[in-house]
Amino acid sequence: GKEDKRLLAAEALRKTVDSVLSVNADAKMVMVGDFNDDPNNKSIKKILLADNAQGNEILFNASEATFKKGFGTLSYNGIWNLFDQVIISSNLLKGQQHYAPESFTIFALPSMLESKGKYMGNPKRTFRGGEFNPEGYSDHLPVYITIVKQ
Fold it and tell me: Taking the CB of residue 81, how many other CB atoms lie within 10 A of it?
């Protein structure tokens, strides 16, 4: 099923991360995108091994704290999901170039959101039911983090 495909994708990414780290243990990696799962789903937690706990884990999920507060990048049947995530290698938590703590941000200008009707507050989609909306841009909101260079 669909979950199987997400688990396989997470496994492939995990293998790539491990491969890069085997060549360069100090590699600084940033993985950004639509993972099609929330930060607490199996593909992210158990397969990719991305968490928001600070410690010795290899990957840090910058998105998880925001998700735990109930925020998301897309709404499906009135429930917010945070599929669009930023996951970083833990060596980006410290050093001269590092992730600014809690800088994960969901970028949402009022013009990017539906202002009325059933979908008020949701991202303004380009297509809804096959109908083109020239003011729309996506059914997901963009995300970003800040990397500090000292």
Answer: 17
What pTM was computed for the model? 0.92
118 φ/ψ angles, rounded to the nearest 5 degrees: -55, -30
> How far is residue 48's CA from residue 54's CA, in Å, rounded to a whole number?
16
Residue ranges of alpha helices (H) inside the chain are 2-23, 42, 64-68
- 15 falls in which pLDDT band (50, 70, 90)? very high
Number of domains in the chain: 1
Q: Which domain holds residue 21?
A: 2-149
Strand, helix or coil for residue 144? strand
131 vs 128: CA distance, rounded Å: 5
